[in-house]
Amino acid sequence: MFKISAIIMFVAISGFASSALAQERWEIPEYKIYGAPSKEADAIAIDTLLETFRKAWEAEDAATVAGLHSDNVEWINAYARMFQSSDALEQFLEKRLFPAFRASASESESRNMKSISRRYLGEDAVILHLYTDGSRGKSINEGQVLRRTHFHFVLEKNCDNWTIAHVAIMDARL
Questions:
Q1: Would you call 20 helix, strand, or coil by DSSP?
Q2: What is the pLDDT of residue 81?
Q3: pTM of the shown model
Q4: Residue 9 confidence class, pLDDT cut points 50, 70, 90
Q5: Tell me, what DSSP letter sits at residue 31?
Q6: What are the extents of the domains in the chain?
Q7: CB contact at 8 A, 69 and 164
């Protein structure tokens, strides 16, 4: 009886582990919105900010990308580089990140950028979770040509103006 119970438990645990691994690795859940904006104008403004970000990223327009961030933004990229102002972020994008890769890297990242979730936190904060598949660095995941990168944006509203206040970027790796 003990052997049967142990086998059943092993099979059950293995089933949970494999489904958890599949979700952690490469599969993306369906887009989800948590909460609701206090007014429809906020949702529209956030959509506009996100579309402006995508277009500026595609064009490698460092000034516009940085201008969407608060003056005291905290940006942490996938390599743990940290910037604590929009000016420092603009300098990094303009002088280091964008010139280090072909323009096609930013273009493909922009085209492939998709939203995973939006979480409203009260009337003046929202978290956006996005991902993209791109060629800015190679994927270390076997069988994957493109590198998957996740973006976590914390937006804040000041006087009806939404800006990105915090960014954390990470790779999806095995």
A1: helix
A2: 87
A3: 0.80
A4: very low
A5: P
A6: 1-28, 31-171
A7: yes
Helices (H), the chain: 2-25, 40-58, 62-67, 86-92, 103-112
147-158 and 161-171 beta bridge pairing: antiparallel
Residue 124, amino acid: D
Strand order, beta sheet including 114-120? 32-34, 114-120, 125-134, 147-158, 161-171, 69-76, 82-83
* Tally of CB atoms within 10 A around 5: 9
The pLDDT of residue 36 is above 80: yes
> For residue 26, how far is the Cα from the chain centroid?
14
53 has pLDDT over 90: yes
What class has domain 31-171? alpha beta
> Count of CB atoms within 10 A of residue 43's CB?
16
Give 54-70 as a DSSP string. HHHHHTT-HHHHHHTEE
Helix (H, G, I), strand (E, B), or coil: what is residue 72?
strand
- Any idea which residue has 């119970």 for tokens? 5
φ, ψ of residue 154 in degrees (nearest 5): -105, 115
Q: Which 8-state DSSP code applies to residue 29? A: P
From the centroid of its chain, how far is CA 89? 16
